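Sanity check

After download, print the first record. It should look like this:
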Amino acid sequence: MSFKKLIFQSIIWRGFYFVSVLMLNVFIARYFQASNSGSIYFIINALAFYLLPVSICLEAGIGYFTATKEIRIYKLANFSFFWALLIGSIITIFLLIFGPGFSFLTQNKGNLFIPLYYLCGCMLTNYAIAIMYANRNFTLPNIVLILINFALVAFLVLTRNNPGAKSIFIQLYFLGFLVQGIILSIVLVAENFEEWKLQLPGSREISKIIRYSLQALAANIIFFLVYRIDYWFVSWYCSAADLGNYIQVSKLVQIFLLIPIIIASVIFPYIASGKTKESVAQVKSICHLLCLLFSIACLFLAIAGMKLFPLLFGSSFDKMYEPFLLVIPGILSLAIYTPVSAYFSGVNKVRMNIYSSCIGLVVIVVGDLIWIPKFGIRAAALVSSIGYFTCLCFSIIAFMRIENASLSNILLFDRQDFDYIKSIIKRNGKNSINES
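Expected structure tokens:
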């Protein structure tokens, strides 16, 4: 399947997933209000950080070696299942011994295993999706994720007048991560059942997987801090309501990032499979088009956001507008940075992502320490934009050197960019929808 068709198919199915994520986010915001929903997302933020070291970003190595076809799929999948089972066993023992010491985990008996549900569920999900995406299967994984999200939305709708359902929803919400991980693992095995063997990779193959994954781990930990360390600064210096408003702004940024991430999930395996020259020009066009589309979307929200945000999320989210305006430059920076980062991963230059993230992290930490105590969530948004832009500047310079490209060629729109989007729509629209 061509690069353009892959992107179109990915956008179609990830677009449906985007709608389900947005719906779930809106219902959680309205159901729990700013202060309580902020607390939920703050817990998820902490668990997401723990996920990075326990998973060692194995999905990066698995996806890379699936795309290059150096290691058989069943070996990669078996190794990922083994790793998830090992980590899950360790987490279970830890929770049984030390879990009662954490007040959040003992507020309700069902809460004790929330970290297990989230961490193991995300590991299984990420590992399975990495293999499926590298095999250019974007349909089945997204159908599973969409159904889980719609089930959670349905629960909120049916129990909206029952105050006691809130604690049940929290348990179901985190359990949903484990359920989707198990389902996706079963789907992965079923897809490859004819050639499946209960065999792990050899020691040399494991060494290759771990080496690549650890590079990705370093890059992802640093970028995670670039992207979310401001949550902790806001929680220290601002009120719970401010935290809820700021995290909701951050969730909007995440929603904007879904499309670049979708495209990155195609760019990475496509380039890793050896089709670098064919993809570089298309990466440039994609970055230009994303920047244009996001500028239009951000302009709309800049005009309508003051009234739209409280109307959409609830009256307690009345402090979102100004931080959103200040984070718009950051959104545009990330729209370009994300596909370029996927390019570096695909050509096995993950260190470039590490360098750019380190520079951005220093900018954000210093800026947050100085300005958040004085100016609150508005400062957090502005500093984040500056940090994201710094990451982008380094990546563009590195991209120019690797591909011998000029700055004007990278930054300026040209006819090729608009011809590219026309060709996607005209040639691949009907075919891609039918194939999916």
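If your output differs, re-run the checksum step. Summary of this record's structure: The chain has one domain: 3-427.
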